[in-house]
């Protein structure tokens, strides 16, 4: 036995080979046979090496997953969450630690100027502190500048908005040199969003550049369409941003005319291309004649429109909706290497709980980090409202955001959060795709989402470009369907594969489950 222990000590890699061959029970027996505490202590560090390189850190260390660890392809991969369907698993947990991203092959990223942007755009970028493009900007800007219909698929918070806005603004500046001003309410570019918060934030980014570049823009969101129909406003507008429902109504009534639009952007394209929006989107996009590729070399006003899709998840079924009005083979697909993978920039904690344990665990977490901006997600509106009431009753100032509120109420509450007047927001998935802030340091999934795409978008509210390094996500796991999703997430990390079913059509998935 002493000889075995000595060999294990001298060759730590041998232990991992041995561990693959022996069951956990046999390992425990081996430790018991050793008999002496010293020998047991000698084996323990080999069983659970120092936490350097631990990717998945588990309550039961035998399920830890380490950097470079490979599993026997003929055997099931062991999961810490494997037994979480059993009631005795309550209290178990594991952590997915922050992972260092692969270092780019290029030693140095290119500059914004090298992407093809002209001096006016570059001067504005320098003024606002943008020094170097991200991966999606580096690859996306040249594609859009060249006139290609482009699908930008990249992880949340990596700069997709600027990736399409910058080339669009450059094109508009060139067109305005060679054309008469279009009639009022005839935009040159249209950006569609599935929700009001995102539309407003896209417009805020445009306004940041408007003064320097002499561009006009307008945002149209639901809630005021009746007033806009009865008492329409007319103005010059280069870029129109809005929600699909509001834009569709005002376009149908000819209050806004699409005849001059040469750029169409679908932001959060995965949501807009879902069956929930399909009919309305298909109707609106028939107003445009999309080119296979738009020629921008002359600078003159092109004859057809150019399409850009932007999303953190790219639906495989997108062609079904798109092929009726665009040659889908014309779409240039730009995907970052971390697309459809678990967010690598934040620590993610999964805790198995009962429904009755969640409030106590939530209160403990929020009290511990009450000075850190936190978003708490729930699946249902009533749960989101209850969470905010529960926390307020326990001395924690918490705002509630949900889809039943007016746009003004939601905007006002989110503004308080942005200004630091309150640090905690309880919301539904209305905030998973619309709240753009680098302040959020903690995301808590009080009710775990049902779909992988929702998990990606919720986690994407923290660890964004420009965020601090101490961001994290905490997940409460209660129901059987939640356990199934956690197992898929854990398996993707251990097997180093993409998350499954990211591209699921949400409406279709719901129908199929009935």
Query: What top-tier CATH class of the largest domain fits best?
Result: Alpha Beta
Helix residue percentage: 25-40%
Q: Could you tell me how far the N terminus lies from the C terminus, measured between alpha carbons in angstroms?
A: 59 Å
What is the CATH homology-level superfamily of the largest domain?
Answer: P-loop containing nucleotide triphosphate hydrolases
The gross shape turns out to be globular
What is the fold-level CATH name, i.e. the topology of the largest domain?
Answer: Rossmann fold
Word description of this protein:
This protein is of the alpha/beta class. The chain has 3 domains: 1-47, no CATH class; 113-335, Rossmann fold; 347-513, P-loop containing nucleotide triphosphate hydrolases (Rossmann fold, 3-Layer(aba) Sandwich). The chain has helices spanning 2-10, 12-21, 24-34, 37-47, 119-127, 135-145, 160-178, 196-213, 225-230, 244-252, 269-272, 275-285, 318-322, 358-368, 381-393, 407-418, 452-459, 480-495, 506-513; strands spanning 54-58, 65-66, 93-96, 150-153, 189-193, 217-220, 239-243, 263-267, 306-311, 332-335, 347-352, 374-377, 398-401, 424-427, 442-445, 472-477. The chain has a 9-stranded mixed sheet, sandwiched between helices. A 7-stranded parallel sheet has the order 6-7-5-8-9-4-10, sandwiched between helices. Helix 17 links the parallel strand 15 (442-445) and strand 16 (472-477). The longest helix is centred in the first third of the chain and has 19 residues, at 160-178. The chain starts with a helix and ends with a helix. Mean pLDDT is 84; it is low at 36-51, 102-107 and 506-514.
């Amino acid at each position: 036995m002493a000889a075995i222990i000595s060999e294990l000590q001298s060759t730590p890699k041998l232990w991992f080979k041995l561990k693959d061959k022996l069951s956990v029970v046999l390992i425990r027996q081996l430790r018991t046979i050793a008999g002496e505490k010293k020998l047991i202590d000698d084996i323990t560090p080999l069983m659970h090496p120092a936490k350097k390189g631990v990717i998945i850190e588990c309550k039961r260390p035998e399920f830890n997953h380490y950097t470079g660890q490979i599993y026997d392809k003929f055997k099931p991969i062991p999961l810490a969450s494997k037994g979480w369907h059993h009631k005795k698993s309550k209290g178990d947990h594991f952590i997915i630690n922050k992972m260092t991203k692969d270092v780019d092959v290029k030693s140095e990223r290119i500059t914004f100027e090298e992407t093809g942007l002209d001096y006016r755009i570059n001067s504005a970028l320098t003024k606002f502190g943008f020094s170097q493009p991200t991966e999606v900007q580096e690859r996306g800007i040249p594609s859009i500048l060249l006139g290609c219909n482009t699908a930008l698929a990249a992880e949340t918070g990596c700069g997709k908005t600027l990736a399409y806005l910058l080339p669009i603004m450059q094109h508009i500046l060139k067109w305005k040199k060679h054309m008469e001003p279009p009639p009022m309410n005839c935009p040159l570019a249209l950006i569609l969003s599935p929700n009001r918060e995102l539309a407003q934030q896209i417009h805020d980014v445009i306004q940041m550049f408007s003064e320097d570049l002499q561009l006009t823009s307008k945002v149209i969101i639901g809630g005021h369409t009746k007033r806009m129909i009865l008492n329409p406003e007319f103005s010059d507008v280069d870029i129109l941003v809005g929600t699909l429902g509001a834009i569709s109504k005002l376009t149908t009534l000819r209050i806004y005319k699409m005849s001059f639009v040469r750029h169409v952007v679908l932001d959060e394209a995965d949501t807009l291309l879902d069956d929930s929006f399909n009919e309305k989107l298909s109707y609106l996009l028939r107003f445009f004649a999309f080119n296979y590729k738009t020629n921008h070399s002359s600078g003159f006003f092109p004859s057809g429109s150019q399409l850009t899709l932007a999303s953190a998840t790219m639906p495989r079924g997108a062609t079904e909706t798109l092929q009726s009005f665009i040659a889908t083979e014309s779409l240039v697909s730009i995907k970052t290497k971390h697309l459809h993978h678990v967010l690598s920039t934040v620590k993610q904690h999964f805790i198995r709980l009962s429904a009755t344990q969640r409030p106590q665990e939530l209160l403990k977490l929020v009290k511990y980090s009450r000075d850190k901006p936190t978003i708490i997600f729930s699946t249902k509106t009533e749960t989101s409202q209850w969470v905010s009431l529960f926390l307020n009753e326990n001395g924690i100032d918490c705002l509630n955001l949900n889809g039943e509120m007016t746009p003004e109420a939601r905007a006002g509450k989110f503004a308080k959060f942005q200004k630091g007047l309150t640090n905690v927001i309880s919301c539904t998935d209305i905030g998973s795709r619309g709240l753009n802030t680098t302040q959020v340091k903690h995301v808590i999934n009080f009710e775990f989402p049902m779909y992988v795409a929702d998990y990606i978008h919720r986690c994407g509210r923290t660890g964004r470009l420009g965020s601090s390094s101490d961001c994290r996500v905490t997940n409460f796991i209660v129901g059987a369907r939640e356990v199934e999703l956690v197992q898929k997430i854990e398996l993707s990390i251990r097997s180093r594969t993409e998350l499954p079913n990211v591209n699921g059509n949400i409406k279709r998935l719901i129908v199929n489950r009935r």
